[in-house]
C-alpha cells in the first residue's frame, strides 16, 4: 500500500534530504510529502536541529512570476530550492514526492491585505489568518501557488486549507471570556464579505448569525442543537460551491503542469486535533462547516486525504467508511494518522488503526516527521 510521511523543509535541511528519505523508506513507506508552502507555528521538534522550531508563513521556493496581487512571503532559505533537490533524490530511490501547500491560511498575507480575509457577520475583519476562498485575488493566489508547486514535477500536489476557515483558528492567540457555545461560535466564523454576500441566502444567514452571537454574548439561552438554524444551514450548504469550483480551478492548473491534486479535508482535525477524541457526527457529515462537500470536491480533485485524528480504531474505520461512501469506490482516498501523542499509544495500537483505515482507504500517510520522536516514528 502507498504510504507517505509528511515532513517539513526544516526537517530535511537539518538532517539532510537523503538521510530523511532513507529513514522514511526504511519504515516501509513509499514516499515523502514535503511542506513547500507553510504557515506560522511554534513546534516542539524532538530530533530537529532545534528542540523548539519557530515557523513563518511562506513558500520554500523562489516565487517566480506566476503570482498577481497576492505574493506569498518567502522563507529565508527558499533560494536553496529544496523541492528541486528532493526530486532527483526521490526518483533515484523509486520514492514518491508530494508537494504540500497551505493555501487559504496565511496570517502574513492577511495582515498585509485585510480586504481578502474573512469578514464576520458584524462586518469585522478579525481573522487575518483566513483568506476568503470567494475573493477573486485569493482564488488567483491559490491557482498560482498550485501551479508553482506542480512545476517541480511532484507525483502530487497536496492542498491544505483550500476551503473556509473556522472561528476558533483565525489568528494565533485567540481569547474569549464569553461562552459562545457551538452554534454561535460557528456563526461568528462565517464570512460575509462582499463576495460571499453574493452566495444564495447570505442576507438571511447574516441576520441570523448576528442574532445567535448577540444572544450568546448577552447571556440569553441559546438552543443546543447540532445544526444551526435553517437560514444559516442553507447558506452553509450553498457556499460549498465556492470551494468546489476553487478546487476544480486548482486541480486544473495542477493537471496542466503535469501533476495531480490531493485535497486535504481538515474536518477530522477540527474534531480531534487536541486530544484524538472526536465527538458527535462523523467528519464526512460535518465537512460543510468548512464549506466542503466531499462528494463534489472528490469529483474534481484526483485524491482526497482525511485527517483521521482519533484514538479509537472503530472511529477511524467509521470516518473513512463515510468518506468512501461519499467519494464512491474509484476515487483515491488517503487516511492521515498520527503515530503517537495524542492519538496513539503503541505500535500495536497504530497497527490496529492502520488496519481499520486500510479497509476503506487506498493509502495511509503519517503526520509528521519533525514533530514526532524517532522511537514513535519507528512504530510505522
Ligand atoms: Zn494557523
Ligand atoms: Zn468571503
From TrEMBL:
Protein name (record): Alanine-rich protein
Biological classification of the source: Bacteria, Bacillati, Actinomycetota, Actinomycetes, Streptosporangiales
Domain of life: Bacteria
